[in-house]
Design goal:
Layout lengths: L2 E6 L5 E7 L3 E4 L5 E8 L27 E7 L18
Antiparallel strand pairs: 1-2, 3-4, 4-5
């Protein structure tokens, strides 16, 4: 998996800030994996090139009010689904 983060240089030109594996994630008993891709703490989501919000993400990955969280959940073929409800909008 590759995560690409874009930004702007001092002249306002679009640039790649980082390209590589997502830096954070967790694997649970039974083989379920959660990869943390990105998080914002409010609106608008502004990139501070010195601070990757993904590094601070933990197993409590629900977004803050007005924030967003982007994770990829991988379930092994024999896993039982973990149905749940949250006060968030989830995409699958």
């Amino acid at each position: 998996m590759k995560r690409v983060i874009t930004g702007h240089d001092e002249d306002g030109k679009s640039v790649f800030v980082t390209v590589g594996e997502p830096p954070n994630g967790v694997e649970f008993e039974g083989g379920t994996k959660i990869t943390y891709c990105w998080q914002t703490q409010g609106l608008p989501g502004v990139l501070d090139e010195q601070n990757d919000p993904t590094l601070a993400m933990t197993n409590e990955f629900l977004p803050t009010p007005d924030g967003t969280t982007f994770v990829i959940a991988q379930f092994p073929g024999n896993a039982l689904g973990r149905m749940h409800t949250t006060a968030t909008i989830d995409y699958g």
